[in-house]
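Show me any protein, fold above all:
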Amino acid sequence: MAEVNLENVEKRFGETWAVAGIDLTVHDQEFVILVGPSGCGKTTTLRMIAGLEDVSAGDIRIGGRSVVNLPPRKMAGEVSEGMLFDIGYADGIVPALAVPEVAVPNGARAG
């Protein structure tokens, strides 16, 4: 893995803003979860990092190398990212929890 840097990354669909100027650094070996309401840009951000969605503005660097102009096929050698989509919140399969109620991987509680 390598460090991933998003610098003022934006995504627009026509006149609609999906992601408005996100800055994020994920260090090598870090585990990151994007949390937010439906439609706030979580999946769009992950799709831009993976090269599945074009970036409207800003830069995404993986291991110090800009990847915003690489086609998805070339991204396969750059990104070892996993994506997990929302599961069951809308269907009531998983009860909605506030952030402090969500368990973190080591068994401790967030908050």
About this structure: Residues 4-85 form a domain with the Rossmann fold fold (CATH 3.40.50.300). The chain has a mean pLDDT of 76.
